[in-house]
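Per-residue structure
===
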Amino acid sequence: MAEPTVDQAGVQAARLLLERMGISPNDLVAGAPVRPEAPTFADYVPVVAASISPGLLRAYGTYWDRAVKRWGERRIDQVSASDIRTLIADIKANRVQRRNGRGGRSAEEHTIAALRCLYRRATADGFMSELENPALKVAKPKRLPTTRRALPDSRLAEINEVATSSGDDPALDGLLIRLHVETACRRGGALALRPMDLDAEQCLILLREKGGTFRWQPVSPTLMRHLQAHAVERGAAQSGQLLRYRNRQPITYRRYDHLWVRIGARLPWVAAQQISVHWLRHTTLTWVERNFGYAVARGYAGHAETTSGDVGATAGYVRASMNELADALSALTGEPHPLASVRA
């Protein structure tokens, strides 16, 4: 193959331009930014972990720990796409086998997401360019349709019966079930709820959920009274977490885990299908969509400001009003709501 020729005329023109600007080629080399040496996984993972939200840390922490265990002393710029694929294969091979598992697709997706988060921060910190990011060179698996679905009223009644008649704190568990059924909120939204987030006059609660989203959601007068009473009885400060144990300590995600294990022990179909609180969200939103249409269900879910991946541009124009959300809630609970335009 012939050696590439150098455009001598272009080189001479560049030199003349630099001379007129008073800049020498050495000045260009000396002034080039120096990239800092990339840290090791053992050093960098704790830095990133300390700067993200608790929710993200729960989602990514396990996979970062695996990366540190495997590559702890290696610099983060010394890992290739093939190395990441090998890590994914190891994680999939040693994952916890669950009844509703899908061959490790979720573990693969979460591993890639965790490493992309880590490498986005590394790119922002100047340790590498986006083109050098190895996590972007590993494709995420295509998501399969969820197996979750709406529960029939009879099954929902069984769940509520077990939650409110067993365990060490049936009042708390019954409140959790009702909160999720009425609002279709996520676990994070329930755990982030504070007494100061209750608008008792209008029967609204402020939900702070994933992605830093905030939304006011209508609740029934009955649920509002129970939330207020719970906060007072269990000593929740106005700016502190509302949902608490009897000893006044804030509940965590573990309460949900224990709740569904207990329900599953008494209702075999719950354990068999791996029913969780997110099924309640599916149940409520399905009912709202069937009875009040897509726009209201979208607003009820807290998706009103999200257009990516939606069904079309029209979705951005058909946002449900608070009155329409209150109408849906009133029909769902059979209770009048201060903001409803119709009476239950």
The first helix runs from residue 8 to 21. The chain has a mean pLDDT of 87. The first strand starts at residue 198 and ends at 199. DSSP finds 15 helices and three strands in the chain.
